[in-house]
Amino acid sequence: MDLARLWLGLLLPVVTALDFRYHHQEGMEAFLKSVAQDYSSITHLHSIGKSVRGRNLWVLVVGKSPKEHRVGIPEFKYVANMHGDETVGRELLLHLIDYLVTSHGKDAEITHLINSTRIHIMPSMNPDGFEAVKKPDCYYSNGRENYNNYDLNRNFPDAFENNNASKQPETLAVMKWLKTETFVLSANLHGGALVASYPFDNGVQATGTLLSRSLTPDDDVFQHLAYTYASRNPNMTKGDQCKNKRNFPNGITNGYSWYPLQGGMQDYNYIWAQCFEITLELSCCKYPREEKLPMFWDDNKASLIEYIKQVHLGVKGQVFDQSGNPLPNVIVEVQDREHICPFRTNKLGEYYLLLLPGSYVINVTVPGHDPYLTKLTIPQKSQTFSALKKDFHLPLRGPLDSILVSDPSCPMIPLYKLRPNHSAATTPSLFVFFVALLHIFFK
């Protein structure tokens, strides 16, 4: 009996328990490599590029087939440590990795989540900044920027105004990474406040800035996503836990309403990568003492898991021609919820639309052809870990080479300056503004 137990122990993967301390580059790499080796059937470790100082930007993929894209399996990502001195998210993602891989095959919910989702986790986008911090501080350290002294969360192309900041290696690596995967949902983890912030971070009148906010066409979904995370964090949901900080009702805020930000990553993800992203501020202190890390894990564990599940909201499917061939670069959007960079199918004809329960009209438009409109209803309670599946078989025949060779990418310019009235948020925002003026004049 004892011999059988010994053989069973030898067969099971063994990873040294991850302790609650700050892991510098060497320690982080050692942990990630051990996970990739011991859980090779559900993980894949790779680097998407290097920092200014040549440190790898590691990404661990967790999923049933971690090395390959599977049709119908949505791609999710977490990114942390964009600012090198904001450290809590970095450690939380390492513990999330540990929790996911050790729970697979033991916890039914986590097992199902891993089998139905491909989860990409980048614990540190700014490893040079993290290593540069010699004296941790709650409010600001010299490791906030990368080695070239650039704030990476001000370094992306901006859809509202020109961003002339020189693009950094870390930023370019992330931009290239976004083109290689069909990411549907993501979050970037920061510190210095306690709130879930959602796009837009920047804006124009067309997105509602006259009312001190900047709303996307998917504002209902973004508010739901932010609240999903905040409501499961006992301190974030209170909204007023950080001294000398703004009070955030329910622990969420529109990014622009908090403060305008040019060149932010969450706006870039949404506009140019058709990936819904929010920003999670996880600690009042940017670099808290190590002994507080277990508390942060306890506060955020449920939120981190529940947020991943939201990648299965809405509707997904493929677009085919009459012969059953998948069609890439086809626009698939909700009518009256168009994006300034239209959401399109990937090379396998796949599309993903994050939507709350309700009735919608889906507009499928092949370049050079009339749009196809289909009404569908997303039920209140859909199948666990699966969006509503809806494929489109279009009555098209003959060569469709123009779809295959066309370049659907949007230019890296301030798109909202060219099309100021495009946003679906325009009408309600201006309507409320004029109603407010009438109220003032006739009170």
UniProtKB/TrEMBL annotation:
It holds the Pfam family CarboxypepD_reg. It comes from the Eukaryota. Its main location: membrane. GO terms for cellular component: extracellular space; plasma membrane; side of membrane. SUPFAM superfamilies: Carboxypeptidase regulatory domain-like, Zn-dependent exopeptidases. Belongs to the peptidase M14 family. Specifically removes C-terminal basic residues (Arg or Lys) from peptides and proteins. It is believed to play important roles in the control of peptide hormone and growth factor activity at the cell surface, and in the membrane-localized degradation of extracellular proteins. Its EC number is 3.4.17.12. Gene3D superfamilies: Carboxypeptidase-like, regulatory domain (2.60.40.1120), Zn peptidases (3.40.630.10). It catalyses: Cleavage of C-terminal arginine or lysine residues from polypeptides. The keyword Transmembrane helix applies. Residues 1-17 form the signal peptide. The active site is at E281 (proton donor/acceptor). One of its GO terms (molecular function) is zinc ion binding. It is an enzyme of class 3 (hydrolase). It is found in: Cell membrane. This is Carboxypeptidase M. Residues 21-311 form the Peptidase M14 domain. It is a lipid-anchor; GPI-anchor.
